[in-house]
Design brief:
It is a single chain. With 308 residues, the protein is an alpha/beta fold. The chain folds into two domains: 84 residues, Winged helix-like DNA-binding domain superfamily/Winged helix DNA-binding domain (Arc Repressor Mutant, subunit A, Orthogonal Bundle); 207 residues, D-Maltodextrin-Binding Protein, domain 2 (3-Layer(aba) Sandwich), CATH 3.40.190. The protein contains ten helices and 13 strands. The strands form four sheets. Strands 3, 4, 5, 6, 10, 11 and 13 form a seven-stranded mixed sheet that branches. The protein has a two-stranded antiparallel ribbon with strand order 1-2. A two-stranded parallel sheet has the order 7-12. β3, α5 and β4 form a beta-alpha-beta unit. It starts with a helix and ends in an 11-residue tail after the last helix. This is LysR family transcriptional regulator. Keywords: DNA-binding, Transcription, Transcription regulation. It comes from Plantactinospora solaniradicis. InterPro entries: LysR_HTH_N, LysR_subst-bd, WH-like_DNA-bd_sf, WH_DNA-bd_sf.
Length: 308
């Protein structure tokens, strides 16, 4: 039995007239009659009483009709579901993000996905750049919002697109002697302990910070390492050291931490969206396209750190 047999049956059952049913279906009446006969032969009962004056459903036809309607409706629903999934309008995406993305692109991206693709479920995980690369490699993540540059060994299987940029700023305990400065001279941090993320979990950002300090004439002394940006700021607030963080982190607006621009100007660091070059989830392409559009239409411009 084929779906077309059900369509033919329901057309005749609706019109109770083979000629009008054939016209609706766009076929000739003789082939329609032959197909209905073939269906009845397969089922083993007559579905229509073909009297000389009019066509009527037999008791078997009456019993067959509701399930035939449901079968066609289920088939149509299956087609629609497959089409929506193929367009990336449904499904689940595992998305990794660095903590500082919550101050820039991520909130706008989440709203855009909710508005444009409400039936796509996002499983969000705050992870370091290295952890995201590992997740993209082993398939536990579909998309990552991370901080380039990535090691060359990690770029071969990934597309990495910049979707935002900002400068680094100095994070100081609020009672630090330099906290009242409008701009902090990097050389004045040479003897300070630093709080940084572990290099093996985010080499790109860590290396840019170390390179900046070396250009200012010193190598930073790392007194404490922390994975999440909020933790780094908390340790700075506790007086364990100073740090260089993305400018957007200053939106934390903590009274116990001062965020200041540095002199000379710090590196411009990127936020990027990363995904596998060979990708089978259509919803990934939709999310990446939204991130790309947001970056183009409304570039991230984090609040400038307050000055006194």
């Amino acid at each position: 039995m084929e779906l077309r047999h059900l369509r033919y049956f329901l057309a005749v059952a609706g019109h109770l007239h083979f000629g009008r049913a054939a016209a609706e279906l766009g076929i000739q009446q003789p082939p329609l009659s032959q197909q209905i006969r073939a269906l009845e032969s397969e089922i083993g009962v007559d579905l229509f009483d073909r009297g000389s004056r009019r066509v009527r459903l037999t008791p078997a036809g009456i019993a067959f009709r509701p399930d035939a309607e449901r079968a066609l409706a289920h088939a149509a629903a299956a087609v629609r579901a497959a089409q929506r999934a193929g367009r990336g309008e449904t499904g689940t995406l595992a998305v990794g993000f660095v903590g500082s993305a919550t101050f820039t692109l991520l909130p706008r991206l989440l709203r855009a996905v909710r508005d444009r693709h409400p039936d796509v479920t996002l499983n969000l995980r705050e992870l370091t750049t290295t952890q995201q690369v590992d997740g993209l490699r082993d398939g536990t993540l579909d998309v990552g919002l991370l901080r380039p540059p990535l090691p060359a060994a990690d770029t071969g299987f990934l597309h990495v697109e910049a979707v935002g940029n900002e400068r680094l700023v100095v994070a100081l305990p609020a009672d630090h002697p330099r906290a009242g400065d409008r701009v902090v001279d990097a050389r004045q941090l040479a003897d300070e302990p630093f709080v940084l993320s572990p290099r093996h979990l985010g080499p790109g950002l860590r290396d840019q910070i170390v390179d900046y300090c070396r250009r200012a004439g010193f190598t930073p002394t790392v007194a404490q390492e922390a994975i999440q940006m909020q933790t780094i700021i908390g340790l700075v607030a506790g007086g364990l050291g100073v740090s260089l963080v993305p400018a957007s982190v200053s939106q934390l607006r903590r009274n116990d931490v001062a965020f200041r621009p540095a002199r000379p100007a710090t590196h411009v660091i990127e936020l990027a969206v990363a995904y596998r070059r060979i990708e089978s989830n259509p919803a990934t392409a939709n999310l990446v396209a939204l991130a790309r559009d947001l970056a183009r239409s409304a570039p991230v411009r984090p609040r400038r750190p307050a000055s006194h």
